[in-house]
Amino acid sequence: MLGNASNPHSSALAATVLRVSLGVVFLAHAGAKYFLFTLDGTARFFVAHGFPGWTATPVFTMELLGGLALIAGLRVRLVSLALLPVLLGAFASHVSLGWMFTNPGGGWEYVAFLIMALITQVLLGSGAFAVDGVLARSATQTHGSVAQTSTS
């Protein structure tokens, strides 16, 4: 299975690994905003970097719900696209800090990598073991039953 790079199972599993990894990263960032920095502290950080403080709550919510959706494999392409503005905002706040994320305040390399990973996820889709696949099979079976019923 892994010997053939064009194997569709390998591609589906690769998309799944990327999807779940991104979901875990977004959940970790949402958790840090809520439990470690607090939403008030996150709002102050946002203001210090030129963003309105009120955006801390929507960003937290996007990371939390987006992370859960990615892990579950629910609307993966749409969720990945929706998370891009969150990371573009993060990129804007890190770009002046240099390239390496180990720089004081963190650089932009990690954020840029996550942006490219989300774009890759959009292109790959949900992968294996995703709610999207269950929904697609259910819709196919439902539409197939409707078609059979209407022609009977």
TrEMBL record:
Give the InterPro entries listed for this entry. Answer: DoxX, DoxX-like_oxidoreductase
Does the record carry rRNA processing as a key word?
no
Give TM regions.
12-31, 51-71, 78-101, 107-131
Which UniProt keywords are given for this protein, alphabetically ordered?
Cell membrane, Membrane, Transmembrane, Transmembrane helix
Instruction: Give yes or no: UniProt keyword Transmembrane.
Output: yes
- Where in or outside the cell? Cell membrane
Pfam family example for this protein? Answer: DoxX
Q: How does it sit in the membrane?
A: Multi-pass membrane protein
Give the family this protein belongs to, as stated in its UniProt record.
Answer: Belongs to the DoxX family.
Q: Which PANTHER family match?
A: INNER MEMBRANE PROTEIN YPHA-RELATED, OXIDOREDUCTASE CATD-RELATED
Instruction: Please report the name of this protein according to its UniProt entry.
Output: Oxidoreductase
